Amino acid sequence: LPGRGWQDPGVLTGMASRQRMYLAAITVATAVAAVLRYSHQADLAIFIAAGVALTGLAWLVSFATEALGERFSPAVTGVMQSTLGNLPELFVVLFALKAGETTVAQTSILGSLFANALLVLGFVLVAGATKAPDGVMRFHKRLPNDTATLLLLASFIIVVLALSESVSDRASQHQLEISVMGAICLLLLYGFWLWGYLRMPHDADCVGAKPAGHHVPLAASIGLLALAGVGAAFVSEWFVGSLDTAVDKLGISKAFTGLVIVAIAGNAVENVVGISLAAKGKADLAISVVKNSVAQIAVFLFPALVLLSLPFENRLTFVLAPVFVGALVLTALAVWQVTGDGEATAFEGWALILLFVVLASLAWYE
Questions:
Q1: CA-to-CA separations, 20 to 60, 106, 121, 181, 318, in angstroms, rounded
Q2: Which residue in 38, 124, 191, 315 has the most C-beta neighbors within 10 A?
Q3: Which residues sit opposite 222 in a β-bridge?
Q4: pLDDT tens digits for 197-226?
């Protein structure tokens, strides 16, 4: 909202009213999922209700983080949004591993990555290019190129392990140990990149540069964030617990559930925010929202979950099905090719979207 409209008390009151309405809807959705779960209703109903609640809780995490981030620098706020915004996916993966659903765990992480890097980025580019007078969306090159580099380095570890597995060499007997070492290396790499990212100057049109207008007290922001985190933990457990029966009744594969349903539900808020910003002509801000999320998933969330899964019987590693290994490498190359020059057209956005559609159709038949 430009100029005086941002300061208008009526505008702020309207926004607060919508936020209260969203919070009420999330409470109702979570309560419905809880009632269905603890009254031992049909797993399909629990699965659907928990999926809706997860989407709402993702919004609550994003809202609370943005309100909290008004007290920090723009770069710190952007990193906080990406990190804490992945809480729902974190809990889904951990509970999936605990339940022995390794396929769902792996495809949930990959799905979040593919959904952001292909589907969401594609729609952002389409919206941004449509808004641009000459049909070309322009943005700074630094973050897109950094993201492509991080994706390629994560892909390197995954490809090396896949090749070792395919030829059954001596190293293939130590996949867990190599995955742990790879996870540590990626986390160190992320730390090096993050240190430089937080220190470099950012334009006014970057994540968190302008107040979100939430004006939520600090204690309330922390309380909402804690509430959303606890809610995401419970709802993720209900979601995973109802998974087997639900996918059988719906006739969908577990790979499709993780790659598409969980990924879109867990990243729904980031998706809408990124596309909305692009449609308003805020190209750098829109790209920043999506690219930060992709980088976080590839070199922070995935390796962190590899380490967190070590106490479980079913551990997460970087060993993936060959089709997903190939898709990951091609995604990194596609992202680099499309956004590396700092500009994109609607045609390139649609190309990324259709790549995700092909990948989703493959997961449907897995």
A1: 11, 35, 30, 45, 41
A2: 124
A3: none
A4: 777 665 544 444 444 455 667 677 777 777
